């Protein structure tokens, strides 16, 4: 696969229930999540509350709980859930033949490796 999709590596590099970060030169760090259900999501790695590192949060279902003040953020939409309000940008992601791809146009000048 090529064109507008950026290969960031094999999906096996992210354990289920965890996330890894992707540094972006000149842009905001991206967190790539692997849920216990086997889904993958990519979001800007900054909580909509006070920029907590979502990659270090607890993943449950398709939600991550921010490690700083426990806001729940939908991995699917980037929206804060419950009484909290805010939204973090999501990055289109697809998995093909065991590799993870991010929408290139949604990522500014990325280094093509996970940190
Ligand atoms: S920074 Fe995430 S809940 Fe406060």
Query: What is the averaged pLDDT score?
Result: 91
Overall CATH architecture: 3-layer Sandwich
CATH fold field value: Rieske Iron-sulfur Protein
Major sheet size, sense and barrel closure: 4 strands, antiparallel
Q: Within the largest sheet, what's the order of strands?
A: 2-3-4-8
Overall geometric form:
globular
> Mind telling me the C-alpha Rg?
13 Å
Q: CATH superfamily, please?
A: Rieske [2Fe-2S] iron-sulphur domain
With helices defined by DSSP (H or I, 4 residues minimum), what is the helix count? 0
Describe this structure in words.
The chain is mostly beta strands and 115 residues long. It has a single domain (5-106), classed as Rieske [2Fe-2S] iron-sulphur domain (Rieske Iron-sulfur Protein), CATH 2.102.10.10. It has no helices and ten strands. It has strands at residues 5-10, 18-22, 30-34, 40-44, 58-60, 63-65, 72-74, 90-91, 93-96, 99-103. A four-stranded antiparallel beta sheet has the order 2-3-4-8, with no helix packed on it. Strands 1-10-9 form a three-stranded antiparallel beta sheet, with no helix packed on it. The two termini are 22 Å apart. It binds FE2/S2 (inorganic) cluster. The site of FE2/S2 (inorganic) cluster has 8 residues, from loops. This is Nitrite reductase (NADH) small subunit. One of its GO terms (molecular function) is metal ion binding.
């Amino acid at each position: 696969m090529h064109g507008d999709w950026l290969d960031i590596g094999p999906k096996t590099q992210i354990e289920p229930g965890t996330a890894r970060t992707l540094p972006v030169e000149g842009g905001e760090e991206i967190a790539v999540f692997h849920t216990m259900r086997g889904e993958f999501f990519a979001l800007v790695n900054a909580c909509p509350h006070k920029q907590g590192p979502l990659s270090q949060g607890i993943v449950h279902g398709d939600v991550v709980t921010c490690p700083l003040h426990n806001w729940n953020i939908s991995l699917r939409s980037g929206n804060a859930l419950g009484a909290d309000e805010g939204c973090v940008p999501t990055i289109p992601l697809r998995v093909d033949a065991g590799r993870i791809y991010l929408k290139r146009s949604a990522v500014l000048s990325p280094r093509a490796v996970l940190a």
